[in-house]
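User: Predict the complex with GL4.
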Amino acid sequence: MFYSKEEFKENFVKLLEQQQQPASSKTAYSILAGMVREFVQRDWDETTYLYQEEQRKQLYYFSIEFLIGRMLGQNLVNLSLYEMVNEGLDELGYSLAELEEQEPEPGLGNGGLGRLAACFMDSLASLQMPGHGCGIRYKGGLFSQGLNDGFQTEQPTDWINDSIGWDTRREDLALYIPFFGKLHASGKGPFKPEHRDAKWVKAVPYDMPIVGAYGNTVNTLRLWQAELPEQQLLPAGDIDAYQQQVETISDRLYPDDSTEEGKLLRLKQQYFLCSASLQTIVKNRDFPITVLPKHVAIQINDTHPALAIPELMRILLDEEGLSWEEAWGITTHTISYTNHTILEEAMEKWSSQMLEQLLPRVYMIIQEIDRRFKEKCHQEKLEPEALKKLAIIDDGTVKMATLAVVGSYRVNGVAKLHTDILKMREMKELNEHFPHKFHNKTNGITHRRWLVKANPELSDLISSAIGDEWKRDTMKLHKLNEFTQDPVFLGDFKAVKQQKKNQLADYLVKHQAVTIDPESIYDMHIKRFHGYKRQLMNILHIQMLYNRIKEDASYRPHPRTFFFAGKAAKSYQFAKQVIKLINTIAEQINTDPVARHHLHVVFVEDYSVSRAEKMFPAADISEQISTASKEASGTGNMKFMMNGAVTLGTFDGATVEIVEQIGDDNAFIFGLSAQQVMQFEKEKTYHAREFIEKDREIGRVVSELLSGSLSKGAENIDFIRRQLIGENDPFFVLKDLQHYARTHNRVLAEYEDSLAWQEMSVVNIAQSGIFSSDRTIRQYSDEVWGLEKVHSK
Ligand code: GL4
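Assistant: Here is the predicted structure with GL4 placed in the model:
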């Protein structure tokens, strides 16, 4: 332990001296991380003890993904040790920033959904609320991305092997999960059959400390690992083959959160997570099972953990011996559900046959839930169409979103617009049936990572103007509104932004051998690659700009660097072709003797939490250009805002609420509204072809695109062609393209007025407080979970 800089240095040096090898950065990192881990342990034990002692209600956040990012730096920030350690290391000739770079990043998530879970963990601990994560300890996180001739390449990652291990193996809490097998009537009634010949998997938890800021609260992120069970639970036959089968369950994160590729394995992962987490909760309780909802709240993060509903029923019926009515009452007062998308392909549906085979008892319970719910609905005399929508099991498939709604006490969307769409359209019938279940909880992000940690320069500047209370209460950022006209403050802000832009430029030289102009406007489109996120529209617009520069000698706009970063799911060919297209256009523009002085296109490889931390603070413009209605919330939009970037976007997801906060004058909004998009979808009155035929500029870029010259071969755009032409441009890229181009022109004009631009940036920061995940978590707690703050010292 260390309580002063001198003490820290002394301990650190002592540990260094004990090393056999010369002290590399890696060794120094491990020593430091070990010291911090030890520091955290005492608070962790104390928090755990307090939770038991005070018998307060506990929240368990079930999620198939937790994109936590690196831990060392964030833990130091939350422990208020960052400055001290930084100085101490500096005096010893080490750079903390460099040591942080040694930490392998656990990529246990795909994007927004997983990162949200991580921000929530940070907020719960920092608000001193008893909330824990339950997830899977994937041996390999999301693939690491490279580029080969402009094409995405994917390499497996193995974060665990390289890690110092923030987590602790809890062999004492290991459990066993049954798959397959057959049910036999046991004479205990129709709902309590015996499960025979199951194939057992051992679930071993690894606990990760989640260090809260300000207090001494350390919550737990429990990640389950699948292992071979002991002798007596082993099936007959080839043990090595069985071991391999078992271990694949926690081997890899699915490289996509919106498809169910590799269905059986994905289903196994989901049940593994739900069963292990629920079994521990029930087993280790010290209260009667009938009062579970008083002591425990379970939030399911999208439908991936929706099997928690029938699994909790199974435990209550078969292991606790409750009646169906009792069990159902408890389940539907314990579990609540968050929906994160309305994209059709992301709406999970499992084949009944597969479910029945893999989880016979659980399937039987789902059938009974469905039967009872159908019976209720029939009493309401609904139209057959409505009845079909309300069915949990329909046409040989189980609709997980319907199961999740029926089996939980509260259901929420993640931004106002998204929740409205859920209520009015996607889940209209369910909302009518359960009028009080649906509510909105607009997402948030932790400013402790995305501002305090990622942008200490801006944090310091803010604190120098308004004090540092905003770090505890982000709504205090409002005080910055007094500085929006203050030329000194605006000048300081500009200097900080420039510093962050320089830092990113240096980083890219070092890590990607790319040289960018730090004086250019940094325009960023960084997120997963997806049709609806419209990276295609962005790059087509850039090609239009390029054509204009080539055609019109008087058009010489302010230099801009267009950043793209993000991964495409391995099997998502369209998205991969967009990546190739971006890189081909980048090469063409970046080597053009004239255009390169005005436009620069950079694809930042292997986008991750730590890369994101370097990018958000450096942005001038935040591209949030999804087809309206498709982006449930977005959270990158909030990270940009908090760092003073100005949004160029559509009225979609939480961007609507960002604009509500800052006013129309401080953002650049364009394109179809969600209403209009939904209208076009319904009436089918949009014809992409007309735009290609009638708009000269669009016609030109599309024909360049289709010729294959922008992608080094027409075969590299066949999926894009199919979408734009064959499928009539379902994401309205061509429809919104000219409005997007005009809006970019407005942005450029505005950027020329430096003070006005900085004023916009500062308004964005000042109004960003509401998008803190602390606010979101308080709302969940007040309106859904009913947690109380546990007072640690
Ligand atoms: C997502 C949404 O696409 C995204 O808009 C949202 O911000 C995020 C967190 O709520 O959830 N849904 C899925 S699926 N993946 C996401 O990132």
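The pocket of GL4 is lined by residues 111-113, 116, 257-258, 302, 340-341, 346, 414, 443, 631-635, 653 (CB under 6 Å).
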